[in-house]
């Protein structure tokens, strides 16, 4: 029964991803029986149009069905979207268990300057996201001093679901 609910949930999320009215976010729960309940959501980057969002969620759905079908929870993230499902509700609080890390192989010639530029950029992004009520904030800071270039930073926030 859980697998049937999961398939229904993923289909519903995928069908809703390209709808303009969803604004790049949708959550859904499949089943009324708590023992087989499946919770899920997708979140698309705020600057992604509905067609790209829909395609991204459809691709993530395909990956989940291929890779994680027998799991009670899964999380897939692409550049344009993320798709998450679980047998436990994720709608009423922050999930601190999911983190992303990315790096490149280039060394900063001035690590102190690099860290300061990065810290300032992330503070600005966090402040804009919190104060302006934005769902997605992206910022690239090309810094020429000391041959430092900071890649774009991003914070994505899901709308309140509580």
UniProtKB/TrEMBL annotation:
<protein>
    <submittedName>
        <fullName>Cysteine-rich repeat secretory protein 7</fullName>
    </submittedName>
</protein>
<dbReference type="InterPro" id="IPR038408">
    <property type="entry name" value="GNK2_sf"/>
</dbReference>
<keyword id="KW-0732">Signal</keyword>
<dbReference type="InterPro" id="IPR002902">
    <property type="entry name" value="GNK2"/>
</dbReference>
<dbReference type="Pfam" id="PF01657">
    <property type="entry name" value="Stress-antifung"/>
</dbReference>
<keyword id="KW-0677">Repeat</keyword>
<feature type="domain" description="Gnk2-homologous">
    <location>
        <begin position="1"/>
        <end position="90"/>
    </location>
</feature>
């Amino acid at each position: 029964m859980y697998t049937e609910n999961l398939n229904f949930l993923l289909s519903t999320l995928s069908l809703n991803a390209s709808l303009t009215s969803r604004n790049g976010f949708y959550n859904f729960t499949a089943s009324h029986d708590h023992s087989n309940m499946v919770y899920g959501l997708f979140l698309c980057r705020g600057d992604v149009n509905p067609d790209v969002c829909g395609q991204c969620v459809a691709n993530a759905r395909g990956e989940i069905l291929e890779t994680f079908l027998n799991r009670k929870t899964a999380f897939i993230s692409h550049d344009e979207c993320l798709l998450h499902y679980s047998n436990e509700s994720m709608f009423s609080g922050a999930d601190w268990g999911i983190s992303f890390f990315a790096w490149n192989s280039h060394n900063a010639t001035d690590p102190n300057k690099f860290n300061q530029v990065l810290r300032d950029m992330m503070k600005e992004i966090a402040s804009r996201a919190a104060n302006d009520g934005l769902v997605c904030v992206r910022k690239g800071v090309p810094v020429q001093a000391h041959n430092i270039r900071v890649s774009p930073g991003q914070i994505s926030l899901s709308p309140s679901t509580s």
